[in-house]
Write a structure and sequence with these properties.
513 residues; alpha/beta; 23% strand
Amino acid sequence: MTAVSDTPAPVPDPILAGALAADLDAADFRSEPLRRLWGEEADDALARGMREPILRAIHGDDGTLATLGRLLVLGMPQPAGAVATALPALGVGGLEALGLGRVVGETVVATALVRPQSFVDAEGIGEWWIASDLDEVALDGPLPADHVLGVGGASRTLAEIVMPVEVDRALDLGTGCGIQALLVARHAGSVVATDISERALAYAELNAQLNGVASIDFRRGSMFEPVAGETFDLIVSNPPFVITPRVDGVPEYEYRDGGLVGDALVEQFVRSVPEFLAPGGSAQLLGNWESRGGQPELTGRAGLDRLASWVVDDLDLWVVQREELSPLAYAELWIRDGGTTPRDTGFTPLLAAWLDDFEARGVTAVGFGYILIRRPAGLAGEATPLRRLERLSQPIANVGSALRAGVAAHDLLGQGLPEALVTASDVTEARHLLPGNDDPSIIELRQGGGFARTIAVDPALAAFVGACDGELTVMQIVAAIADLFEVPLVELWADLEPRIRQLVLDGLLLARP
């Protein structure tokens, strides 16, 4: 087990947090001004763990923005006088009282990071200040076990996949620095944010204060214990899903390791969450799941099927597997994430522990992706539950909106196929012809947004989609195609109807407004 942090947790205080926010606002301490200050290339380098380009770009600059950039973005000591000038409302004493810095002689030493984080959601573009523990670059070493992560890749991914729907009550389980709770609070009447880490909750509460969000209730506890007996319209979670060997000598990090064997934490969440969903409520999370046994070419499907077995049949389930790693690739990824590289003497023992752990359970692959579980609003048995288990590796845009549209399409189809359909505006058709042949060998429908699907179709279905302009009914179009291709209407309809329904579900065809 790695050591815990020797830096105390921050101390949330609404008055001091408000003063800090006023100072940051006055300094224009935001993503774009900072990026302009030190340049795009240096800014991108910081995301890869290099701060030297930024330091070179602002060398000799003692202005307010440069001072705050070095102190709060990079976590570097700064002269107390310069910090006092940069934070006139809060002051050096206020920064120290919040637990974000400490005074050593004539210097202010950063004890946390505060970075601007921009976001885009259904309500528009915004930005928050997010405080978190000093990262590996600032610490110049491995992370403590109780490290509170800032806004990382997984946080941004979860934020992108959450459906933009208005809800009364929401839950952010395992809130960490609180970024998901802040996002959900933009379209929820109230939010409960939980975490097993008291340190994480301190950061999350401070971040809510910094950004003027007062609708979040912070509670400490493991999994669903803090909300026993309650239900929610939306539950989001970026749980500590990383699969880590439970043996001596392998570091465990609170922000990523849930303390259970294999993918048991994701299984526990998936099996438990229905109890806490109100009718019509949805749960969305990121996770890893193991494929165990089976042929290598079938492992991805085996993992998805295993995950689906954890969800009872009367619930909607939509799983999108974004990637799949071999045990070796997975082990290397997370060993490196902890700060150990193959050049370090500790790398090989860690790798052996990971591979032994996977071998003991017969793990052949580890999948990663998005999980959506919904409790239908109607009575059980009224409609066939949604069950989508798919592997998508292509770039995806506006995932949250695409998921919302897909769920809405499933509900619509539960009432029957719409009388008239229109082709979505982002759909294009591609035809592939062999040289000298006028008849296409392949016809594809391509979706420009959402899940960016490419779907092979035959001439009959392509003709149907091309005629969907909302003027003619579905049956009028199918009848015309039957005449054109000189095939019986009944046979053509039996062939086209399930594929038309799938195109509606995928968002390529929409109900006529």
